[in-house]
Every structure is written in C-alpha cells, then in structure tokens.
Design goal:
The structure is a single chain. With about 525 residues, the protein is mostly beta strands. The chain contains six helices and 32 strands. The strands form eleven sheets. Strands 17, 24, 30, 31 and 32 form a five-stranded mixed β-sheet that branches. Strands 18, 19, 23, 25 and 29 form a five-stranded antiparallel β-sheet that branches. It is elongated, with a radius of gyration of 30 Å.
C-alpha cells in the first residue's frame, strides 16, 4: 500500500550538538548523549483535487487536498516491544517551493535504538477522538476507545499513522551521512545538518464511503418484469460504526482478494473476533461495541454523499447485520395502483368470501370501522401505506383486517368471519411498537429504508472471509443499480444476527475501492 495515499519519507538526523532546542515531551533522557532528528514527508499527488474516483477496485487515488493536509506531526519513539519511550511534536518548516512535501526543523532526541512511528494531525482536533491519550509507557498496539469518530476526519486535519505496526528498530547512535533538506526536498544550504534517512509510509486511519448516484428514480419490477412501484432515492447514512481501533493497523493481508489486485490488506481490529450469538441482551452487546445502529439523519443526493468511518473488519461468521458497517438508503416508494392488495365483496377467492361474510354480520356485530370500501380507501396524505406479509395496503385498517382474515380459524367461512371480526377489533387501535409486534408495518409518507453492507471484496463468494467490512485508507464507492421490492419501515436492520449475505436481497449495489484504494459496489435494492 506504499503509494496508496501518502509516501512518508522520514529523515532522522543524528549528531552531537549544543543546540537550545526543546527537550522531548517526556522531559527525560532515555540514554546517555543526545542527537537531533528531522522528519520529511512526501505527500504524493497532494495538488490533485479529485472529486470522484477514476478506476476500478484496487486502483488508487490521492484524494482531495483537504484529505491530505498535514498541519502537525507527532513522532513517537518506541522500544522493540512497542512501548512508547518518547513523544515529540517537532515544528514543520515553512517556505518550501513544493507543496507536495513537508519537512520538520531538526529536533533533539536521546541517542538509542527505537521503532519510529509518525502521526499526522494528532496534536490538532483528532486527539479528542479517543478516551485514551497516547503517553510514555503506553503500547503502540493498545486498544483505543473512540469517543468521537467525527474528530478523526476533521477537514484539513485527517488523522494519519504508519501503514502497519511492524516497524523495524532503527539505530540512532551511529554517525549520520545524509544532509538536512527543506520542504521541497532540496538540500539545506544554510548551515545544513547531517541526518539519517528512514522511510516510513503513513495513511489515513479512516475509511471513506461515497454514494455515487446519477439515477435517482428507479422502476421496481416483479419477477415477470412488470412495474410495481417507483423508488426515488432521497438520502443516505452510515450505520454500525466501530467503537474501538488501533492507532496503527497490523500488517495482515486478506485471505481472499478482488480479481486483478496483488496485495489486499484486511487487518484485525479490536472487534474482529467477536460475534453476536444470541447474547442475553443484544441491544446492550451492540451498544457496547458499535455506535449508530440506526440512522437518524440523512445526506441527500444533491451531490454524491461522502462519509468517513473507523475501520471495521471481522471473521467470516461475524459478518452479521448488527456488526458490519453499512449504508441505509432512504427511499420514497410509490406503488403502482395494481400493487395494492384488495379483497372484493362477492369475490371468488376464499379470502374474498370471508370478507363478504364479515360484511354480512350486520350492524351491532360487524365492527363499525369495516365497510365494503376498506381496501380501496387511501390514507389522508395519499402517500402512507402499510405492509403485512410482504403485501401492501392503502391503509392500516385494511392491513389489519387482511391479517385477521388470514389468521382466522373456524369450521366454515361464517365462523372464520366472526373470528376475524373479533381480531380486527382487538388490533385496529394499535400503532408504533404494538403494530410492529403483530407484523403490520407503517410506511409513513411512503418512505422505505434499504441497507447495503459495505463490501471490501465486492466479488467475493457467499459469506467468504474478507468479503464485508471497511478498511482504513480505502475509498468505497457505492451505486444503486436496481431495487426489486419494498424495504424495511425503519432506518436500520431487522435482525442483528442475520448474515450479510442472505438468500434473497431487495437491493443491489455496485461497489469500487481506492487508497484512498477504491472499492466499487453495485447495489440492488
């Protein structure tokens, strides 16, 4: 992933000096003697202001200047076991002629042997993203609790870190032979220092999800290619954001990778090995590990909505609706007139005959809210409809009456009519959670929701390891290509234990990935 985003060229200058530079942040010396260090970052293609990814899954894109900007650097020296020994906030040089490169002023460090980690923009707003604070004595591979994920991707201050945790130990006790450089990577001409150069790659710690949608209204067709509704995409939102992360990812490649790619990373995050398996209280379990289990606000499609989120990967059998980062699409669903379910008085079907028998119960016995036009009367706004058992009804009472008829028992249609009438009276006043409990769902103003689980390997086979999830510094581009049925009535998933790959899906999304590695995903709703 060396050139996926930022190629950081670290120049660490070592020599004895009597300079008055500030002492390291830990205010202590690790070993006898002191030396100086300098860091140089080469920001690949930083001048490109890419608005949309160009290319297929596995291609790379530098992103926008705001996504690449480096305002400050934090340098961490760790021992061979990754325990932090010292932390520095060196000053960045100014005045370079090439905005693609940044360099620090030389700064003092104790001589020794260290692993070198570099964090970009950590001393700005991104530090407040975590409950924990990086400190001397801590481990670089500690689990960090994300207190505010939005601070990981503040404009011009995206948090960046080494591209893997396997940093080699660098010896800063020998003589340096390279020369100090400026922002443009040209050698310093004014009393230059001799430096060591150590190469380190850094990357953004968040993933990027873009909803690239040109076609906003899609015809919904049945299996016979008959139009049954129009679906208009109104907006999108992310759900299931990981609450935990590592500052630096592990260097783990995917077991299964997209065709045409050579190296495909799929690191293990702190939640990787967890799986929801009928936990005593699913809500508590999910809340403890993931945030945003449902969408509360949506970004419209005036322009392609773009979201940033923490890394979220998982073992194959943990690829479940309650754990995988996904996109909720908000859709206005307008059924065709022929798509509504109706029962007719004196009709030929068994349900028609039970309906006719109910109408024959007469005043005083038949519920007063039942009449011959109950199935043809729309809700007052003309848009709200109800669903029961995948059937669509023009109003709530029609859906409840149909359910009552479908579940009625008795020796004959007359007995079933009496039972259905009684059940209708019992259920007709229900709403909200009580209505959901009897499997009658309200689609207020015709709004339906569809979830598309983000795929790291869009072409992967069913529930294959590494198929779902989001990985840092990857750009997932999703496009809805088709919608084949009614979605859910809530902006979330129905069953958190449901597998991400299911036998039947009513959304199909095309996806691409950039490093920003691009992942393109076609979505069929």
């Amino acid at each position: 992933m060396k050139n996926l985003f930022l190629t950081g060229l670290l120049g660490l200058g070592i020599f004895c000096s009597c300079s008055n530079e500030d002492d390291p942040a830990n205010n202590g010396k690790l070993n006898e003697g002191e030396t100086y260090a300098q860091i140089v970052l080469n920001l690949t293609d930083s001048k490109a202001a890419t608005k949309a990814p160009t290319g297929d899954t596995g291609s790379t894109d530098a992103g926008t200047p705001s996504e690449q900007a480096v305002k400050d650097l934090t340098v961490v020296l760790a021992d061979a076991n990754n325990y932090v020994q010292a932390i520095y906030a060196p000053t960045l040089k100014t005045g370079g002629t090439d905005a693609a490169d940044r360099a620090t002023e030389p700064f003092k460090i104790p001589a020794g042997q260290y692993k070198v980690y570099v964090l970009a923009n950590y001393n700005n707003q991104t530090k407040g993203a975590f409950n924990e604070t990086l400190a001397v004595g801590a481990q670089m591979d500690q689990v960090l609790t994300i207190a505010d994920a939005s601070k990981l991707h503040v404009a011009d201050n995206f948090l960046m870190a080494n591209d893997n945790l396997v940093a080699s130990v660098t010896d800063f006790t020998g003589d340096a032979e390279d020369t100090e450089v400026n922002d443009d990577l040209a050698e310093e001409t004014d009393n230059p220092q001799k430096v060591h150069l150590v190469e380190v790659n850094i990357e953004r710690v968040v993933a990027k999800v873009e909803l690239d949608q040109t076609t906003k209204t899609i015809d919904v067709e049945d299996v016979n290619k008959n139009k049954i509704a129009s679906a208009t995409l109104e907006g999108g939102a992310l759900i299931n954001l990981n609450k935990y992360m590592y500052m630096v990812r592990e260097a783990k490649t995917a077991t299964n990778k997209p065709s045409g790619t050579s190296t495909w990373i799929y690191p293990q995050d702190p939640n990787y090995n967890k799986k929801l398996t009928g936990a005593g209280d699913e809500a508590d379990w999910l809340t403890a590990n993931f945030s945003n289990p449902s969408a509360t606000s949506f970004t419209d499609f005036t322009s392609a909505p773009t979201f940033y989120c923490p890394e979220n990967t998982m073992q194959a059998d943990a690829q479940q609706n309650g754990q995988t980062t996904g996109v909720v699409y908000k859709v206005t669903y307008t059924p065709e007139s022929t798509a509504y379910t109706e029962l007719a008085q004196n009709g030929t079907s068994n349900y028609d005959q039970i309906f006719t028998a109910i109408l024959g119960l007469g005043a005083g016995t038949m519920d007063a809210d039942i009449n011959a036009s109950i199935f043809t009367t729309a809700e007052s706004d003309g848009k709200t409809f109800y669903a029961y058992n995948d059937l669509i009804f023009k109003n709530k009472k029609a859906a409840i009456l149909y359910k009552s008829i479908a579940e009625a028992t008795g020796a004959d249609n007359a007995a079933k009519a009496t039972a259905a009438n009684t059940a209708f009276t019992s259920n007709k006043g229900k709403s909200g959670a009580e209505l959901d409990a009897i499997k009658v769902y309200e689609y207020t103003a015709g709004v339906s929701y569809y979830t598309a689980w983000v795929k790291h390997n869009p072409a992967g086979s069913n529930m294959q390891q590494d198929k779902f999830g989001v990985v840092r510094n990857h750009w997932y581009v999703l496009t809805v290509e088709s919608i084949s049925g009614l979605g859910y009535h809530k902006p979330t998933f129905e069953d958190p234990e449901a597998p991400d790959d299911k036998a039947e899906a009513n959304i199909q999304v095309a996806a691409t990935i950039k490093a920003w590695t691009v992942v393109k995903q076609e979505v069929n709703l």
